[in-house]
Amino acid sequence: MEKSVEFGLEHYIENMPGMGKTDVKTYSPLALAFIGDCVFDLIIKSLVISRGNRQVHRLHEETSHYVQASSQSFMMRAIQEHLTEEEHVIYRRGRNTRSVTPAKNQSITDYRRATGFEALIGYLYLRREYARLTELVSIGLKSMEDAEKEPGKQEK
After folding, report:
1. What is the CATH number of the domain that holds 84?
2. Does 20 score more than 80 pLDDT?
3. Does residue 39 sit within a domain?
4. Cα–Cα–Cα angle for 29, 87, 140, nearest 5°?
5. Percentage of the chain surpassing pLDDT 90?
6. Does any domain span residue 98?
7. Distance between CA atoms of 36 and 42, rounded to whole angstroms?
């Protein structure tokens, strides 16, 4: 009897034709934020859809609430005390990088902090530190939930 082996999504992504091993430390902070934005978006969309099937417009609205710069900035403030020194370095590099595009309807501070957040997410993803990535995102999401229960706690 043949024993089947089950792989996670990361196995399939890593073994796609043309996908090579990468040295994450060679990527610019904006490249890390580019992939981090996609990864965070996928995490949030997965979370939102897991809460039940609804109209796509409603799914989009709920997703937008979490992925906007002000929310990412809020989550970043909540997870900062949980970061390792290496993670702080990555976050600061992302935060301090000047973006090509201006912030849309967000403060520059929130936008830059969100870029640092996305750079950190991208870094952890590319290093395949999935457990750490989800741990930090969970801390950020919990802080948002707690703030939403207490009016006035989530300041921008």
Report:
1. 1.10.1520.10
2. no
3. yes
4. 100
5. 69
6. yes
7. 10
Q: Which residues are part of the catalytic machinery?
A: 37
Helix, strand, or coil here: 136? helix
- Between CA 73 and CA 76, with CA 144 as vertex, the angle to 5 degrees is 30
100 versus 55: which is more confidently predicted?
55
- Closest by CA to 90, choosing from 125, 130, 39, is 125
Structure-token pair, residue 122? 């991208």
127 C-beta neighbours (distance < 10 Å), count: 15
Structurally, the chain folds into a number of domains equal to 1
Domain that holds residue 84: 26-146
- The answer for residues whose C-beta is within 8 angstroms of residue 110's C-beta and 6 or more apart is 69, 70, 72, 73, 103, 156
What is the distance between the alpha carbons of residues 124 and 132, in angstroms, rounded to a whole number? 7
Least confident of 21-25, 38-42, 110-114, 152-156: 152-156
Ranges of beta strands (E only) in the chain are none
Q: Are 116 and 80 in contact (CB under 8 A)?
A: no
